[in-house]
Amino acid sequence: MLKIVLLSAVLLTAYAEASQQSNVPTNDMPSATTAYGVHEFNLANGLKLLVKEDHRAPVVVSQIWYRVGSADEHGGITGISHFLEHMMFKGTEKYPRQAFTETIKKYGGRDNAFTSRDYTAYYQLFEKSYLEKSFELESDRMINLQLKQEDFDKEREVVREERRWRVDDKPESRLYEQLYASAFDSAPYRHPVIGWDNDLVNLKLADLADWYSRWYAPNNATLIVVGDVVANEVYTLAQQYFADLKPQPLPDRKPREEISQHGEKRITLSVPTTQPAIAIAYKTPRVGQAEESWHAYALSVLAQILSSGDSSRFSKNLIRGKGIAFYANVYFDVYNRYQDLFVIFAAPNTTSDVAELQRAIEDELTQLKEQLVDAEELEKIKTRLLAYKVYEQDSIQHRAAALGRLETSGAGWQEHFRFPQHIQAVTAEQIKQVANKYLVASQRTVAELKPLPLHSDSSIE
């Protein structure tokens, strides 16, 4: 036990040192706020710039995060944020069609993008001397994107095909999608990021143009640079390429709180597959929404206790011990803009069934509700979480993404550095409290994947 505690202390120190790393002085910083080794600048047009110096290698990652995702969509236009992400590579007058990516390749860089429920983000990875080219490209397509009907029609089929192979052709992905659609009645996470196919079919080019004009503006974006740079030089470049872009009036975001649930929900998805599965979801608060700020962090530790490596309870008791589970995992995210779910996703082995597996899962939850986690198990889990966070610091892309995700989801980028302290503060009693408060049947949605013979029609019951 002493070794685990000492290792935990070493990891906290390593995390703090990685967070503060900066080997080149940045004097005369213009209008900067600096904390945890991150320099924050706010341009007059509303663009936020975050710079994290890391001088270990002559590379730099530049990311721009827009505060718009599937949570901002409504019925009829689901998937539009992700669709627009695809269209952002179709060109401007200065860099037409595929010239954006080809230009990045010419300079030896890499680029990509991703859309989530709370944000849409774009990034480039370059040798450090080409950061200016990244800024030139991103500032250009922030306001000068050319949306053409020919590109729109082709890309719609690309997006629909992506939906087919990511979701429609994967029974477990379909179950996960239906779980969210059933668990939430009014909250914005009820529809998928990639959108419903009927909405994709009926989207118009004018819909994308409207979405672009609403949300793509400097006052709805955060620019993040991590790598072998000097912060005030990055700020000067940002001023050169972004300062003249005009801010836009942004749509008001309503709270969109989920209505109260007063009993368990159940659905069955019957599809051609050979593997049954079950998903059990409980409504849980995001950071800042809970009655006490520690609730979400205690749930995060609880998730790790159940499903984090071979020593986790699901692995020891359900997979290896009782031998009734083929796999059993927990999915829980501390940082979201809106209320989310604590999801247990599991599949029985060939000699068990879904009902038996659900009872075993509920037994594990009951144990957490009735008995305190012992000190050694709790410390092991915390140490594993801290180790994972330390290892993440080795990637400048991950460092930038961590800042962007937290800043854009509303938690604030500073939470990335406070997370280890929040986790270290979680107690066994707190884990017991959140298990009893949130993991209750009245707040539960259960989705079962029921196999049909291959090549059969499917339905949702």
Strand order of the largest sheet: 1-2-3-7-4-6-5
Mean pLDDT: 92
Q: Can you tell me the residue ranges where pLDDT is under 50 for at least 5 consecutive residues?
A: 2-7, 21-27
Written as H for each helix and E for each strand, in order along the chain, the element string is HEEEEHHEEHHHHHEHEEHHEEHHHHHEE
Question: What is the approximate shape?
Answer: globular
The structural class is alpha+beta
Helix share bin: 40-55%
Largest sheet: 7 strands, mixed
Q: Tell me the number of helical segments per DSSP (H or I, 4 or more residues long).
A: 16
What does this protein structure show overall?
With 461 residues, this protein is α+β, with helices and mostly antiparallel strands. Helices cover 44% and strands 19% of the residues. A hairpin with a 5-residue loop joins strand 2 and strand 3. Helix 1 runs parallel beside helix 13, helix 2 packs across helix 8 and helix 4 runs parallel beside helix 9. The chain has 16 helices and 13 strands. The protein starts with a helix and ends with a strand. The N terminus is likely disordered. It has a seven-stranded mixed beta sheet, with helices on both faces. The protein has a six-stranded mixed beta sheet with strand order 10-11-9-12-8-13, with helices on both faces.
Secondary-structure blueprint:
Layout: H1 2-20, E1 33-35, E2 38-42, E3 48-53, E4 59-66, H2 80-87, H3 99-106, E5 110-115, E6 120-127, H4 131-143, H5 149-168, H6 171-183, H7 197-202, H8 205-215, E7 221-227, H9 231-242, E8 265-272, E9 277-284, H10 295-306, H11 313-321, E10 325-331, E11 340-348, H12 354-370, H13 375-392, H14 396-409, H15 415-424, H16 428-438, E12 444-452, E13 459-460
Parallel strand pairs: 3-7, 8-12
Antiparallel strand pairs: 1-2, 2-3, 4-6, 4-7, 5-6, 8-13, 9-11, 9-12, 10-11
